[in-house]
Amino acid sequence: MPVTVAEIVAPCDDQPELVERIASRTIKPPVTIVKPNPEWPQRFEQVKERIEKALGTLILDIGHVGSTSVPGLPAKDIIDVDLTMKDPTDEASYVKPLEEAGFRFLLREPCWYQHRFFVENWPNAYHVNLHVWGPDSPEVVRHRIFRDWLRKTPADQELYAKSKYEAAEQTAVAGDSVVEYTQRKDKTVREIIQRALRDLGYVEGDTREVI
Q1: What's the total number of domains in the chain?
Q2: Per-residue pLDDT tens for 56-108?
Q3: CATH number at residue 31
Q4: Would you call 119 helix, strand, or coil by DSSP?
Q5: DSSP string computed for 62-96
Q6: 79 vs 89: CA distance, rounded Å
Q7: 32 C-beta neighbours (distance < 10 Å), count
Q8: Which SUPFAM superfamilies match (predicted)?
């Protein structure tokens, strides 16, 4: 079923206790924010090509999201990819091909729109976070809305950059992981996405279909 506005604006039901961990990262770099890299879009295209070669017609969409998808925005040197599949529960059809293409299957979250999470974990290579979703995931739409809003709103791009630097510094001082880094900037993310949703005219309870 198409995603509706009501689903997009609904609060995310984060249930970390229901995460099913498959493996752990073999490389755990520190949370470091770097200056914008003009090569990030090209890196995404290279990753996209690898995924397309591995999965072919199983793919519905591949999108570049996260901070590296916003020109001029500082970011962790990690390419975030949203991969929309016909059926993310059919792991037999795509896990092995993705692993052969250089991605490591880390976890599944059946209660969060059947999310599956992979990382690229090659030594001496740039890293990739690969998120697998089904065709009815509002999270994919939220990622796109957040990205597009930052691309056209310098004030919020500056605010988000400041939040990222502060969160990374606090995480380094505390010796925490990327999980705590993400939590430290969550408030700013929520504020920005709310402005983006208001700009689109989305209101709670609206049943319009958006994709």
Answers
A1: 1
A2: 999 999 999 999 999 999 999 999 999 999 999 999 999 999 999 999 999 99
A3: 3.30.460.10
A4: strand
A5: EEEESGGGSTT--B-SEEEEEEEES-TT-GGGTHH
A6: 24
A7: 11
A8: Nucleotidyltransferase
